[in-house]
Amino acid sequence: MIYLIITAGILVLDLAVKAYIEKTKQPGDTQEILGGKVILQKVYNRGLCLNLLDKKRNIVVGLSAGCTLAVLLFYIGLLFQKGYHGLKLALSLLAGGALSNLYDRLVRKYVVDYFSFQVKWKRLSKVVFNLADLFIFVGSALAVLSTLCRRKA
User: Fold this and answer.
1) How far is CA 120 from CA 30, 35, 37, 42, 123, in A?
2) Which one of 71, 80, 87, 93 has the fewest beta carbons within 10 angstroms of its own beta carbon?
3) 3-class secondary structure, 148
4) In the sheet where 30-33 sits, what is the strand order?
5) pLDDT at 125 (0 to 100)
6) Which helix (H) or strand (E) holds 33?
7) Are 90 and 146 in contact (CB under 8 A)?
8) At what angle do helices 131-152 and 85-103 cross, to 10 degrees?
9) pLDDT the model gives residue 151
């Protein structure tokens, strides 16, 4: 049950932050926070990661929906099995982020991204994320680590 609460919490949190950004920020406006290490801004991403396939909305929605469905089916099946706590946590993070971005793609027709990191690598500094993206990344990394650790045990 805790894993479903985590998934729902991520979904609600990210959608709430996106709604706040939509209401309070204009595209192009920036605001430095955390000593300038994080930049808040509103960016619309109509494609996949880094706006890939932004002119192919049907493909983007289809890929997003298909991947989200695959994650959800595996996740739900895993919830009924004993153990696998690391993988269940990973999939709860991944599912929450995927559902939030899929919601954006279906309802808004774009994903709202709203922060970037100011780092030495200028290419990374130009990439704008949302919390869903971070949870997808962390969930994916945790899933790999959990699977690798389980195989060694």
Assistant:
1) 19, 15, 11, 22, 9
2) 80
3) helix
4) 30-33, 38-45, 111-117
5) 85
6) strand 30-33
7) yes
8) 160
9) 66
b/e for 118-151, b at 16 or more Cβ within 10 A? eeeeeeeeeebbbbbbebbeebbebbeebeeeee
**What does the pLDDT read at residue 152?**
58
Q: How far is CA 101 from the centre of its chain?
A: 6
Structure confidence at residue 45 (pLDDT): 93
Q: Would you say 132 and 102 are in contact if contact means Cβ atoms under 8 Å apart?
A: no
Residue with token string 């996740």? 75
CB crowding 88-99: b at 16 or more within 10 Å, else e: bbbbbbbbbbbb
Question: Is residue 14 flagged as an active site residue?
Answer: no
Instruction: Give the range of the structural domain holding residue 96, as residue numbers without chain letter.
Output: 2-152
pLDDT digits (tens, 9 = 90+) for 65-93: 999 999 999 999 999 999 999 999 999 99
Q: Is position 133 annotated as part of the catalytic site?
A: yes
* Overall domain count for the chain: 1
Burial class (CB in 10 A: 0-12, 13-18, 19+), 103: middle
- The pTM assigned to this predicted structure is 0.91
Q: List, for the chain, all residue ranges whose pLDDT scores fall below the cut of 50.
A: none
